[in-house]
Amino acid sequence: MAIFIENVLDVHTLEAISEVLAAQSLFEEGKKTAGSTAKKVKNNLQSDANSSLVKGAIRQVEKALFSNPVFVSAAQPLKCAKIIFNRYETGMGYGEHVDDAFINGTRTDLSFTLFLSEPESYQGGELIIKKADGDESIKLPSGSLYLYPSTSVHYVAPVTSGSRLAAVGWIQSRVRLEEHRTVLFDLVSALKQLPDSPETNTSRLKLLQVQSNLQRLWSD
Ligand code: NI
Question: Which of 95, 123, 137, 208 could serve as 160's disulfide partner, Cβ 3.0–4.6 Å?
Fold first, then answer.
């Protein structure tokens, strides 16, 4: 299951992060952290992981994610393997690749891209997910996020004008299998739609019991 989540960052946080990341000195060659295969196709700039300003901005993103109820019910996050900011200037892109199965010793079940530039401020730069039934092209408003299984082949189309800033990250889920995460997400959605009235109390409790017991069965 892949999902769009709107307004993961509020306007204030988005502005604060964009202001910090406006400094070009906080960015370095993206090839630095790419594996040998990805190195050949990766052409972007990414944030300096040692910078305290960058670390602060990453903490803000992580906090926003882990307090977003849609993100939490879709990802069932156990921990975040890594978050980096990347910037694609005109002419830059990231060719077809797969994300590493483990990053910093953490299994990557889900990947996300949090868009930080307004879509009309640059051309190209779509995140493309390769699929048997047709590729998916993603370009979202700033502050919105795309969450997708890390199992896919994907790429970032070349930016043909302007500059594209985003945060990307990897999550280890408590629930390893995508199918299981989808069932749990659907269950949470059904619970949210259940009217809050004395007549539905027994059903609600039963569904909560099913949810808890499936989480026990399906978590690592
Ligand atoms: Ni990737």
Answer: 123
Candidates 111, 117, 157; CA nearest to 3 is 111
CA angle 26, 35, 40 (to 5 degrees): 90
Cα(107) to centroid(ligand 1), Å: 14
Q: Are 95 and 155 in contact (CB under 8 A)?
A: yes
Per DSSP, the residues of 58-112 read HHHHHHHHHT-HHHHHHH-EEEEEEEEEEEE-TT-EEEEE---SEETTEE--EEE
Q: Check residue 1 and give its pLDDT.
A: 85
Distance of CA 4 to the CA centre of its chain: 9
Low-confidence ranges of the chain (pLDDT < 50): none
Cα 110 to averaged position of ligand 1 atoms, centre (Å): 11
From ligand 1's centre to the CA of 52, what distance in Å?
24
Q: Which protein residues have their CB within 5 A of the ion that is ligand 1? A: 99
Q: What angle do CA 207, 211, 217 make, to 5 degrees?
A: 140
Query: What are the tens digits of pLDDT across the range 2-43?
Result: 999 999 999 999 999 999 999 989 999 998 887 777 788 999
Distance 161 CA to ligand 1 centre (A): 21
Interval between CA 104 and ligand 1 midpoint (Å): 15
- Indicate the pTM of the whole model: 0.93
- Predicted confidence (pLDDT) per residue in 89-104, tens digit: 999 999 999 999 999 9
pLDDT of residue 38: 79
